[in-house]
Write a structure and sequence with these properties.
The longest helix has 12 residues, at 25-36. The protein has 55 residues and is mainly alpha-helical. It has a domain at 21-53. Helices cover 49% and strands 0% of the residues.
Length: 55
């Protein structure tokens, strides 16, 4: 999978190490809980651009 901003082999190697990260079920639950508390405010795109997305 492409990683935006990755332009060099050392950065690609560094970023590919992320597949070795493992979370415990408790850590995943904590992340999920915290994410659910984030209030989404505002539109992703200005009205004119969103109209072009077909959403």
């Amino acid at each position: 999978m492409p990683i935006p901003g990755t332009k060099t082999i050392p950065r690609l190697q560094e970023n590919s190490g992320a597949d070795e990260v493992a979370f415990t079920p408790q850590e995943l639950e904590d992340i999920r809980t915290r994410l659910e508390r984030i209030e989404i405010v505002g539109a992703r795109y200005p009205k004119e651009q969103e109209a072009l997305t077909g959403l």
